[in-house]
Give the backbone structure.
Amino acid sequence: MPVVACTIMGVTVIGRFWEPLTKMEKDAVLAHEQAHQQLHHGRQRWWWLLTGRWNGVTRRCHQQEHDADKIATFAGHGRGLLKLLGRAHNTPASDFHPSHRERMGNIMYWMTYGDDSVPENTC
Ligand SMILES: [Zn+2]
């Protein structure tokens, strides 16, 4: 699925797939991106790049996505995230993102079982 929005150096950039989204989906995207900012994920990725720490970077990037999803879910945006990810639920994992199916499974788990622990900053 093409990027709807991403956060680069603390600034959230909206992509061309933003407009067709519902308000609930847009709110979920912004909550997810805000979580990336809150956890300094962009800065972490730059640090990995500048210091050549690419060993395990896919695993760490996937963990960042799960952490942002978790915070957004517990801020009340789980349904919006599920609706958004469900638009392209067969999207496979990439170097920087887990598959949509994996993300949706985690979000449904958190919505069902309510683990409210906040992920730690892994920088
Ligand atoms: Zn993200």
Remarks:
- The pocket of zinc ion is lined by residues 32, 36, 65, 68 (CB under 6 Å).
